[in-house]
Amino acid sequence: MERVAVTSDQPLLRVEGLTKRYGSRIGCADVGFDLYPGEVLGIVGESGSGKSTLLSCLAGHLRPDEGAITYDRRDVLAMAETERRRLSRTEWAYVHQNPRDGLRMGVSAGGNVGERLMAVGARHYGGIREQAQDWLGRVEIAADRIDDRPAQFSGGMQQRLQIARNLVTGPRLVFMDEPTGGLDVSVQARLLDLLRGLVRDLGLSVIIVTHDLAVVRLLAHRLMVMKGGRVVEQGLTDQVLDDPQHAYTQILVSSVLQV
Ligand SMILES: Nc1ncnc2c1ncn2[C@@H]1O[C@H](COP(=O)(O)OP(=O)(O)OP(=O)(O)O)[C@@H](O)[C@H]1O
């Protein structure tokens, strides 16, 4: 992929020494990185390596035991809960692996997108419906499906709808947890293509957790490899995948090539 991220002097997100324990078990330990505007960071690792724990801590769903998270020069862990929730509704977005976790299944497709606009203050019904219509088009959902409920959609369509619902408010930072997991290979490819276009066009900063190296190869500028809760290697995606330095990354890469 094109490796031109929009650069800026200041990281949008700075993470330092982030640690989360579950009793005596390590969820993630001493994780640190900078994420710049327009940059996509992939986090890979085997099951249990700490990817979900880390993403949950970053997105504010879990409180880390140690460390610091600075977003746009603001100390996220010191923020009042109301302020963090406001960020989650406006400047941040979270795409779940299972679209059911990120959609309201009893509400129409248009409603799913429109209610996010209302949550950030939009009041004009005609304008909201028009923007919802526009976003459904951007995620390749036909205009005549606007009044259908997500349950009437295929898995791929549901995931595209979840993406529209998340992006309609114009977030700057998007957390994605295995967004292509559980989908057929051809559906995955189409979704990845769509995501890549949206990320580029909107200049989004993204943190994407996946166990699929093909996903990070296509989407991520930089890659972080986790094992046992710790970061064992990080760098430019092509560099890490083509010339892995850590023995664990070498196994991860070679096991995929053998498939
Ligand atoms: N709620 C919990 N209570 C206790 N231990 C947990 C909990 N959630 C995760 N862990 C442990 O923390 C470690 C990291 O798990 P985590 O789910 O973050 O890994 P992961 O890389 O996201 O795995 P997967 O790809 O399977 O989701 C594992 O040892 C796991 O058993």
TrEMBL record:
Keywords: ATP-binding, Lyase, Nucleotide-binding. The keyword Hydrolase does not apply. Signal peptide: none annotated. Residues 13-253 form the ABC transporter domain. GO terms for molecular function: ATP binding; ATP hydrolysis activity; lyase activity. It holds the Pfam family ABC_tran. GO terms for biological process: organic phosphonate catabolic process. This is Phosphonate C-P lyase system protein PhnK. It comes from Paracoccus sphaerophysae.
